[in-house]
Amino acid sequence: MTRRVLWHVALLAALAAMLYPLVWLVAGSLKPGERIASTVGLWAGSLTLDNYAALFAPADTPVWRYFLNSTLVAGGAVLGNVLTCSLAAYAFARLRFRLRTPMFAFMLATIMLPQHVVLIPQYTIFQRLGMVDTFWPLVLPKFLATDAFFVFLMVQFIRQLPRELDEAARIDGCGPLRIFLHITLPLIKPAMITTAIFTFIWTWNDFFTQLIYLSSPDRLTVPPALRMFVDLQESAASFGPMFALSVLSLVPILLFFAAFQRFLVQGLATSGLKG
Amino acid sequence: MGTGRVLAGVLAVVVALAGCGGSGDGGGAGAVTIRFAWWGSDQRAKITNEAVKLFMAKNPGIKVVTSTAIYDAYFQKLATETAGGNAPDVMQMSDRHLQDYAARGVVLDLRPHEGKEIRTDGLKKEVMGLGTLGDKLYGLPLGQTAMVMVYDPVLWEKAGAEKPELGWTWDDYFEAAKKVSDHTGRKVYGASDFGGIESWFKVWLSQQGKGLYAPDGSLGYTEQDVVRWWEMATRFRKAGAVTPGEITAVNPAGSPVARKLSASEFQPDSTVAPDAWKAFDNDYALAPPPQVGADPGLYGEPPMLLSVSARTKQRAAALKLADFVVNDPEAAKILGMSRGLPANLANRAAIAPTLTGAWKQVYAYEELIAGKVKTGPPAPPKGAGTLFTLFDKYYQEVMYDRAAPADAARRYYAEARQVLAG
Amino acid sequence: MTRPSTPERTRPAHAPAAAPYGERSRVAYLFLSPWIAGAALLTVGPMLASLYLSFTDYDLFTSPEFTGLENYRRLFTEDPHFLAAVWATVRYVVLSVPVQLVAALAVAVLLNRASRMQGFYRSAFYAPSLLGASVAVALVWRALFSAGGAADRVLSLVGIRTGGWVTDPDLALLVLVLLGIWQFGAPMVIFLAGLKQIPPELYDAAAVDGAGRWRRFLSITLPMLSPVIFFNLVLDTIRAFQVFNAAFIVSSGTGGPGDSTLFYTLYLWQKGFVDFRMGYASAMAWLLLAGIALVTLLIFRSARSWVHYGGEER
Question: Are B21 and A134 a contacting pair, CB within 8 Å?
Fold first, then answer.
């Protein structure tokens, strides 16, 4: 009994320490701007919504615009990844073709490839196409299944499915496309959901690509918009809204996490163990 | 999952992307949108936005979207925007970066528009040179500034430090600052460490008849000059006359003076905000820099330039805004001394009697030194922007006692030469 | 792979299972067409292009000019910031990865027992891994560890005055390391899944032999878990070499104070996208790839001596 209590106490204490910065962030967004950085505690003597009000004050580019932009980019990325990664995964897992082995090996290798190696030519391509400062460079690659990690995840998942179903369907005269649409797709829903969630969260958090590709104020997504606050001469006046926007920027991630954590944790464990 | 639904989703996103990826000029009928960006403080942002509002009221067909950032971030961002062919239509430009951006074809030559959309006849001649490269005019002067020392006269008097007057020396400064530090038990230091500030190194060089750059664009000083400058700063620091590293380091709460940890600081007088000393019961004063010899080494030069993007799609509107910021008398009243003395002499005379608070002091300071200031050097060579940052970066090693001045100076100098070589 | 034992039906004549390629190959390539396009246009092509660019002087605005090994020579002989960046990155990897993995393993072991609360704990510890890469959390870190910030105040209670970690060249990197360690949830979840696959009989047998907790951990848990440790180590190391956001936000894109937080990717960004030295940045990218490949190879090599694959799986 005491052991159990000790166990909970230890874990809760560790958890409290871990989550403190996040709680401090939320509490900070409700403190008067000039006291945010210097108060260790969660309570700074008064509670205020001023920071949020300041954030939503009329501006050239209203705050909701950043969220809309982020949602469009993340939404496009999710769609692209789910669609094209599942197609590619099906081919790798179920179809036979001449270049299968080298292509699969190549796909696996690209999981480890640092994006910086392709960064500059990619940037040049998009620049020549006049696509810099649009959402295309952020979304288009996802429609070309460049996130090899998710292809791999789905390959692993499809391989676990019983082949009998495919065989039966084929014997009934179904072509690969119909097998894919009617048999495989419904069965790999969990993998697709995992892909969708991770793609959403990673895209939502992504800063580097958005930093180099987006610049017009009305096309900024949330992360570079947040960075604008860092770039202002820091003062109480900018600190408050910065905290408020930080909190809001994390809300979609937390919501997704709360709703789908079961899939997330499973998906992560699967990708790690079945490699 | 219905294929139809997926397709509908794809379509929706594609449409949305296309909508947002367009040229972005979807304003109302006839309305033109231009972007105007600058760097600087909150204060400057507030004031500039006011002036922009006036511009929009006077030109209902033009919408101006503004953005602001601190100096380093401003140029990080401008680089990104330039790469995408998307620089702001009107942008504040630093002389240190002018050659880079002119070479890349980012900024427009204003010469063909001079005397037409852009009026320069009212501008002080001596400040026009900085934005000129060869016979091309890439930047309009946004005011005229000189370096200044701000200090807390009350504390200096209490500490028995000698009042800084035109002609005082660096040794006087050392003594005075040390007295203040000792008086407060180093709770408030006599001065903020100045070793990493290239603009002050420039003043110090100028006092000895040298400059940051030689006319041919190479370095205008020797490695030994850097050693001497950093050794002087180190002498100040070791004696407790200036702030130690952890106080001098960039801090979100502001400079050491703003945090009341130092009683004097060097800055361009264009960065003095109108209510800069509210937190100090307005008991602050301006003083000329300490000298090496007979020359205070001050330049009267634009704190920054105003450039127009060469690729702007709204050239007429951009030129109009640029001219407005530099020449409009009503704008001048709003902008005040937020970028130093107005470059337009009529505006300068007009705003003088209206100034109050810190700006009044800045004006008085400019009058005090008026006979002593030299015309600034021409626009520095390519790479000057990088050197500005490097100078501070290497001094930080000295400041934290991680490198001796001679060692850091040697490495700085070697790298500086490399940067200029390209 | 076992074949289904369903009764054989007559195969449609046009789809002989024995014919390996041809028609079905074409279908496969159809499925793969987005991936093939992406691999060719956005991976292989750009990789070759950046390899070429790494031997050139290229500023994005004018055509690249071939300069041979000049970029590489400069990196190694003339650029002190490059070496500083390598050093800062290596220090970050060496400090953050092992501690993060140890923390992940410790909490996973602690969590690995029957409890209704386990799901909650697992999710709660995992949350920082999802949030940690965001700009928002980096901003929080920056605020917490600034001069006069929370960390400073707590430490001054015990008499230590730091005057701001973020601006201290000795401590700034530590701020980033702490942020890295804070995200131990992801490897933890994988460890936890691994722990669940260890057959309980092994522990029972060891307990009968009188082995204590620690002994059992050393002789059963660690070896049984070694493939998972290996997996996490590889993944985390590769990830840590490429950290960007935190260093960018905490140092406002400068990598300061000094070059103490000038992570490799940050310097690459500065060279490429602020100074427009795209050829130079490409050379840096290829060196990064080589470095990561080398480190991964070393980990793989070392794995032979410490990774034990369980009996029935292989």
Answer: yes
Domain with B207 in it: what CATH number? 3.40.190.10
Do B185 and B312 have their domain in common?
no
Q: Note whether residue C14 is domain-resident.
A: no
- Tell me whether residues A213 and B83 touch, CB distance under 8 A: no
Do residues B317 and B390 both lie within one domain?
no
Please indicate, yes or no, whether residues C96 and C46 belong to a single structural domain of this protein: no
B vs C, Cβ pairs < 8 A, gives 70
Cβ neighbours of B81 in A, within 8 Å:
133, 215
Contact at 8 Å (CB) between C174 and C246? no
Per-residue pLDDT tens digits of chain B, which is 422 residues long: 444 554 455 445 444 444 443 334 444 446 899 999 999 888 888 899 999 999 999 999 999 999 888 888 899 889 988 888 889 999 999 999 999 999 889 999 999 999 999 999 999 999 999 999 999 999 999 999 999 999 999 999 999 999 999 999 999 999 999 999 999 999 999 999 999 999 999 999 999 999 999 999 999 999 999 999 999 999 999 999 999 988 888 776 678 888 889 999 999 999 888 777 777 776 789 999 999 989 999 999 999 999 999 999 999 999 999 999 999 999 999 999 999 999 999 999 999 999 988 899 999 999 999 989 999 888 999 999 999 999 999 999 999 998 999 999 999 999 999 999 87
Determine the structural domain holding residue B253 and report its residue range: 147-297+383-421
C76 three-state secondary structure: helix
**The domain spanning residue C155 has which CATH number?**
1.10.3720.10
Whether residue A132 and residue B84 make contact (CB cut-off 8 A), yes or no, is yes
* Vertex C252: Cα angle to C248 and C257 (nearest 5): 95
Q: Report DSSP state, residue C132.
A: T
Contacts with B80 from chain C: Cβ below 8 Å: 273
Tell me the C-alpha distance between B292 and A106, whole Å. 67
Give the ipTM. 0.91
Q: Mark whether B255 and B326 lie in a shared domain.
A: no
Rounded Cα distance, A189 and A108, in Å: 22
Q: Are residues B133 and B169 located together in one domain of the fold?
A: no
- Find, among A115, C133, A228, the residue nearest to B76 by Cα: A228
How close is the nearest chain B Cα to the Cα of A232, in Å? 5
* Cβ-Cβ contacts under 8 Å, C164 against chain B: 246, 249, 251
Whether A213 and chain C come into contact, CB under 8 Å, resolves to no
Inter-chain contact C9–A171, Cβ cutoff 8 Å? yes
In terms of domains, do C49 and C159 share one?
Answer: no
